[in-house]
Amino acid sequence: MKKQQGTFSIELTFVLIGMTALLFFIFDLGLQVIQKSQLHRTSYSLVSILKERKAFYSPNSRVTNWDINQSQAQQILDMAKRLQGNSAQLRVNIGFKSGEKTEVKFYAGDLSIPCQSVPIGNNMTEGGKHDLNVYRVTVCKKVPAFYEKAMTADTAKTSRVISSTSIFVGR
What we know:
Layout: H1 7-51, H2 54-57, H3 70-84, E1 90-98, E2 104-109, H4 122-125, E3 133-144, H5 146-151, E4 159-170
Antiparallel strand pairs: 1-2, 1-3, 3-4
Helix pairs in contact: 1-3
Organism: Photobacterium jeanii
Transmembrane segments: 12-34
Protein name: Pilus assembly protein TadF
């Protein structure tokens, strides 16, 4: 019995280290889920604003401005930053397609963030009597990679990119 005096302490140490790593992973994963849901709300809000921009960008109520330009993309980015916190590292990809015309794309924000957007297909824009207008907003955000930096050998990795895409059919 005297030879096994420190066994419990050693086993407890291993169990606590394992539980700490598991809790750290769960914390990091929970933080990502929260930030992903915030990105979903942001991209949905921005595509709604883009779709209803007649109220915001038309000189008068009878003239409809359907064109998207780079200054509007920058305004969308500014709104995204306010929704995500002004210090957030964001990139916004905006797409607009009407009928069989080619998709118009605009980018704003930190272009070093890798942000992929799925192209709007013709099957989404072809309607019955009239072609449909389809709007897409993808918001990409750089978030800290706590778990990778602390638990893996990759100490150079300080962040990861999460993204959310919302698509709306306009009038």
